[in-house]
Amino acid sequence: MATSSTASTATASTLAPPILSSPLKAPKDLRVAIVTTDWYDHIVDPLSDACRKELESNGVSAANIDLIKVPGAYELPFAASRLIETRRDSLHAVIVIGCMVKGVTMAYEFVSEAVAMGIMKLNVKTNTPVVLGLLTCPSEEEATRCAKKTGTCNGKACNHGTEWAHSAVELAHIRQKLAAKKCGDNCTCTNCTCDPCTCNKSS
């Protein structure tokens, strides 16, 4: 009986919602773009709203959060890529949010893999982190549950949008820290990639 009780406890612990560590405050003047899909907007919009509110609560100015809409999940990498290309000097992180529900065809598998690969390539090839917020669920009911406040973050109910905001802020910190290491410990520029750092010098 003791063995059975131990196994049950381990299973319950494994299935419990994750509790995130205290989120970092956003670097000064952090600018983030949130790209969302029109498809399943009743699922995606609550996630986007939670993401935006969490960014603001962690120090990101509302004026520094750009909201972009695309038709569906397949277009998410395109929008993220164009944002990075055209705003590379001012954009510090991108969060893409969408939802895919498994149907009777293979489109679900093909598109979800293509989106994940597209975002992965942007993370590898560019200097701007992209957070993948794509729900891939077996049913619309399951996706709706995922979009509701079912998790726990710092003792408060939250959804995945909150987690994605935390990831964006943390990645922005990592990006800034790595740039500072390259340019010198006194560098305070979020986008600094120079060596040595000249961002703080008057022109």
Automatic annotation (TrEMBL):
One of its GO terms (cellular component) is riboflavin synthase complex. One of its GO terms (biological process) is riboflavin biosynthetic process. It is an enzyme of class 2 (transferase). Its EC number is 2.5.1.78. Keywords: Riboflavin biosynthesis, Transferase. One of its GO terms (molecular function) is 6,7-dimethyl-8-ribityllumazine synthase activity. SUPFAM superfamilies: Lumazine synthase (SSF52121). Transmembrane segments: none annotated. Pathway: Cofactor biosynthesis; riboflavin biosynthesis; riboflavin from 2-hydroxy-3-oxobutyl phosphate and 5-amino-6-(D-ribitylamino)uracil: step 1/2. Pfam families: DMRL_synthase. It catalyses: (2S)-2-hydroxy-3-oxobutyl phosphate + 5-amino-6-(D-ribitylamino)uracil = 6,7-dimethyl-8-(1-D-ribityl)lumazine + phosphate + 2 H2O + H(+). InterPro entries: LS, LS/RS, LS/RS_sf. Coiled coil: none annotated. Catalyzes the formation of 6,7-dimethyl-8-ribityllumazine by condensation of 5-amino-6-(D-ribitylamino)uracil with 3,4-dihydroxy-2-butanone 4-phosphate. This is the penultimate step in the biosynthesis of riboflavin. Belongs to the DMRL synthase family. This is 6,7-dimethyl-8-ribityllumazine synthase. It comes from Albugo candida.
